[in-house]
Amino acid sequence: MMQNVHLAPETDEDDLYSGYNDYNPTYDTEELENDTAFQQAVRTSHGRRPPDGVTRPMTAVRAAGFTKGALRGSAFDPLGQSWGPAPPLEARNEDSPEEKIRQLEKKVNELVEESCIANSCGDLKLALEKAKDAGRKERVLVRQREQVTRPENINLDLTYSVLFNLASQYSANEMYAEALNTYQVIVKNKMFSNAGRLKVNMGNIYLKQRNYSKAIKFYRMALDQIPSVHKEMRIKIMQNIGVTFIKTGQYSDAISSFEHIMSMAPNLKAGFNLILSYFAIGDREKMKKSFQKLIAVPLEIDEDDKYISPSDDPHTNLVIEAIKNDHLRQMERERKAMAEKYIMTAAKLIAPVIETSFAVGYDWCVEVVKASQYVELANDLEINKAITYLRQKDFNQAVETLKMFEKKDSRVKSAAATNLSFLYYLENEFAQASSYADLAVNSDRYNPSALTNKGNTVFANGDYEKAAEFYKEALRNDCSCTEALYNIGLTYKKLNRLDEALDCFLKLHAILRNSAQVLYQIANVYELMEDPSQAMEWLMQLISVVPTDSRALSKLGGLYDSEGDKSQAFQYYYESYRYFPSNIEVIEWLGAYYIDTQFCEKAIQYFERASLIQPTQVKWQLMVASCFRRSGNYQKALDTYKDIHRKFPENVECLRFLVRLCTDIGLKEVQEYATKLKRLEKMKEIREQRIKSGRDSSGCPRGRRDGSAGSDSGQNCSAGSKGERLSAQLRALPGTDEPYESSSNKEPDAFYVDPLGPQIERPKTAAKKRMEEDDFADEELGDDLLPE
């Protein structure tokens, strides 16, 4: 390799040598401080430093925070510790406009957040108040910003948030006009980007107001402003449009919307609504195709096999147990349950119309379901088919359909046997009901409905203790089984364990707050516990739930009557009569109430109603005639008695009243009625002699003045004095088969008194006084009126 050779100039050997002696290249580093030449070079040559005492600005280190170099010879202090403590921070001026704006903006944000939180907690009024307050403060903030900064520096995002939240809270509080006005303010402001999407919310409000034309208009306007890349948003708006068309009855337009959705992004709601639309227009083939599309909608959930451990690895098993019931798994269950609900509802809707009979339609639906991902639903559809037979009262077909499941898997077998047990129980075939209840329990011991049915069959046989055990087991398997809890309360009532029964019904009331049956049972238990105040309180709650229940109203009236509060009792009895004017007990009480209060005219309409309900009972017509007599309408009373005599010619009481009235008025018919009365007396005497041996063992001797009377028809012996309650007198009214004894031979029978009881005397003529005597039977009939 060639090397460059530097040739030195030609010199003398001596020159070269001498020069070498002048410059010694060997340095002694220990003597540098004493080397004057080196010290001079250091001070003057490198960097051209200025003389001592003159500092040079170090601009290169200003970015690191150094402002000025220290004087030469000073101590090195890069952290500036020798400078002392830092000066205090400058105090913030809270009165400055910028600081006021900043604080006000923070307060507006806090109010918006508080409004949203209150809405999520269900306090809609508080949410609206917070939203309004945020709106007021935001307007003040805008005015202050305009005074301090330029208009383009206004926080548009904050203004949008405040207005949007205010509109949402108006809508949540059903203040739709205010909500629409607020949305209009947002939509018309061109400075808000993408504000046109809020027209969807405006369309929703018009839909709630049933202004369907405007709802469709705003939905379409929102659809036009949403780009095609937002596919999911557009699908949702089109679904709203389709639902609105269904509400307006425009099924063809609705079908177009839902068909487009099912072709672009099929989902369960759109598929179900498409079936409804075709059902409305009666297109059978389209219904079938739509049902198949509904079943083909992908659920996008994991299979149950994913949650089954494939190995014995403890770590894998732990992970599977952790995800088996996490939020994602719960969401998958909810989605699957919703899909099954839509499919079941659609099948029950179209099955009766897609074929010649509902049974054939159900069979077609079952076959389609079996070929899909919902194989388990096929059995449920078969059971629904049996229930449809029940609704059509075709019990034989229902039983045959359910018996087909006896050889299926245990879950389906238990459900079918439970329904069969219930059917036989309704038909009072308790042996068959018990047999199928046993089959249901054996197939699935954890089926609460099966255990409840088994308890019902045992209850029907009178074994209440054993029935209670079945109900308890049903509750242990499913604490929310309200049927078992209700039945165990009834069982405790039968066992006279009232405290336990009350506890059961109160627990049930906590679950079913507005159940009329539960409220009535609680009131009934308190009544059995002789606590009328609590019974009345719970009956009042019952009436608030079912205000037209005549039985509850009459029950409450009876409790007030037993407590002596006649006015409240009348109010509830009258309400009961108004809702159900055919209850004899209520009619009887109202008539007795008006007689007690000396308003016989008003009592007439109730006894006439009773006579229409029970036309074969003579006592109601006798009461009507007595009311006419009490009210002073003697002619009407006489006509009523004559009408009664035509209907019941062998009624002794009617003849006695006719004889007395005709005698007092002076009518010629008195002899005719007296003859009939005499003949009936003789016939009844003969009849009484024949039935003496069959009289009641407590038969009282007839013809005594002590108010007792014999009766073979089960009537009370005591006649009831003038101080007895009127309701007791009404119940003691005589029938047509009462034995009658001639007053010409014996003392008058005190049993035959005025059905209305004693009457307050009023100053009238002697004839009227005689006609209004308390007891018609207090005097004997004259012998001149009774021919031999």
UniProtKB/TrEMBL annotation:
<feature type="repeat" description="TPR">
    <location>
        <begin position="235"/>
        <end position="268"/>
    </location>
</feature>
<keyword id="KW-0969">Cilium</keyword>
<dbReference type="Pfam" id="PF13424">
    <property type="entry name" value="TPR_12"/>
</dbReference>
<dbReference type="GO" id="GO:0031514">
    <property type="term" value="C:motile cilium"/>
</dbReference>
<protein>
    <recommendedName>
        <fullName>Intraflagellar transport protein 88 homolog</fullName>
    </recommendedName>
</protein>
<dbReference type="Pfam" id="PF13181">
    <property type="entry name" value="TPR_8"/>
</dbReference>
<dbReference type="GO" id="GO:0097542">
    <property type="term" value="C:ciliary tip"/>
</dbReference>
<keyword id="KW-0963">Cytoplasm</keyword>
<feature type="repeat" description="TPR">
    <location>
        <begin position="482"/>
        <end position="515"/>
    </location>
</feature>
<feature type="repeat" description="TPR">
    <location>
        <begin position="584"/>
        <end position="617"/>
    </location>
</feature>
<feature type="region of interest" description="Disordered">
    <location>
        <begin position="77"/>
        <end position="97"/>
    </location>
</feature>
<feature type="repeat" description="TPR">
    <location>
        <begin position="516"/>
        <end position="549"/>
    </location>
</feature>
<dbReference type="GO" id="GO:0042073">
    <property type="term" value="P:intraciliary transport"/>
</dbReference>
<keyword id="KW-0206">Cytoskeleton</keyword>
<dbReference type="GO" id="GO:0019894">
    <property type="term" value="F:kinesin binding"/>
</dbReference>
<dbReference type="GO" id="GO:0005814">
    <property type="term" value="C:centriole"/>
</dbReference>
<dbReference type="Pfam" id="PF13174">
    <property type="entry name" value="TPR_6"/>
</dbReference>
<keyword id="KW-0677">Repeat</keyword>
<dbReference type="GO" id="GO:0097546">
    <property type="term" value="C:ciliary base"/>
</dbReference>
<feature type="region of interest" description="Disordered">
    <location>
        <begin position="688"/>
        <end position="788"/>
    </location>
</feature>
<dbReference type="GO" id="GO:1905515">
    <property type="term" value="P:non-motile cilium assembly"/>
</dbReference>
<dbReference type="Pfam" id="PF12895">
    <property type="entry name" value="ANAPC3"/>
</dbReference>
<comment type="function">
    <text>Positively regulates primary cilium biogenesis. Also involved in autophagy since it is required for trafficking of ATG16L and the expansion of the autophagic compartment.</text>
</comment>
<dbReference type="InterPro" id="IPR019734">
    <property type="entry name" value="TPR_rpt"/>
</dbReference>
<dbReference type="GO" id="GO:0001822">
    <property type="term" value="P:kidney development"/>
</dbReference>
<feature type="repeat" description="TPR">
    <location>
        <begin position="196"/>
        <end position="229"/>
    </location>
</feature>
<dbReference type="GO" id="GO:0060122">
    <property type="term" value="P:inner ear receptor cell stereocilium organization"/>
</dbReference>
<keyword id="KW-0282">Flagellum</keyword>
<keyword id="KW-0802">TPR repeat</keyword>
<dbReference type="GO" id="GO:0030992">
    <property type="term" value="C:intraciliary transport particle B"/>
</dbReference>
<dbReference type="GO" id="GO:0005829">
    <property type="term" value="C:cytosol"/>
</dbReference>
<feature type="compositionally biased region" description="Acidic residues">
    <location>
        <begin position="773"/>
        <end position="788"/>
    </location>
</feature>
<dbReference type="GO" id="GO:0097730">
    <property type="term" value="C:non-motile cilium"/>
</dbReference>
<feature type="repeat" description="TPR">
    <location>
        <begin position="448"/>
        <end position="481"/>
    </location>
</feature>
<feature type="region of interest" description="Disordered">
    <location>
        <begin position="1"/>
        <end position="28"/>
    </location>
</feature>
<dbReference type="GO" id="GO:0005813">
    <property type="term" value="C:centrosome"/>
</dbReference>
<feature type="compositionally biased region" description="Basic and acidic residues">
    <location>
        <begin position="761"/>
        <end position="772"/>
    </location>
</feature>
<dbReference type="GO" id="GO:0036064">
    <property type="term" value="C:ciliary basal body"/>
</dbReference>
<feature type="repeat" description="TPR">
    <location>
        <begin position="550"/>
        <end position="583"/>
    </location>
</feature>
<comment type="subunit">
    <text>Component of the IFT complex B, at least composed of IFT20, IFT22, IFT25, IFT27, IFT46, IFT52, TRAF3IP1/IFT54, IFT57, IFT74, IFT80, IFT81, and IFT88. Interacts with IFT20, IFT22, IFT25, IFT27, IFT52, TRAF3IP1, IFT74, IFT80 and IFT81. Interacts with IFT172. Interacts with IFT57. Interacts with IFT46. Interacts with IFT70B. Interacts with C2CD3. Interacts with ENTR1 (via N-terminus). Interacts with LRRC56. Interacts with DZIP1. Interacts with CCDC38. Interacts with CCDC146. Interacts with CFAP53.</text>
</comment>
<keyword id="KW-0966">Cell projection</keyword>
<keyword id="KW-0970">Cilium biogenesis/degradation</keyword>
